[in-house]
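note to self: dont lose this again. the chain is below, predicted strucutre after it. 126 aa total, dont forget to put it in the shared folder this time
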Amino acid sequence: MTKKLTFLSFTVISAGLLAACMPVLKTKERFTPTNAQVAEAQTQTAYNMKDPSSAQFRNLRGIRGKTSKGQSMSYICGEINGKNSFGGYVGFTPFIYDLETKAARIAIRDMNGINIFDLADINSRC
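---
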């Protein structure tokens, strides 16, 4: 029980720290990303998957805006699906790719359906 709570606490703290790395946009608008930007986002996001070559993407969109400090930010948002260790697809889940920092974040759920990465954080940016 203690190990489970320790792991869960570590997971929640880690997710909070990751969320802090991507500032929230105060203003945002959609834009059409270039083919090169889409390819970059797909490559970098798929790299985080168990089997990058199996990555499938849908609902891709570009979002840009400014933070409360006036910093310009651009993201590519969408959903990614990939194969697990057993070779089966796990289902589409939201992701965000920061075009400036080149950081990709994927909303991951554990076996109990608990969000490890704060899904609301992705939704606030996308």
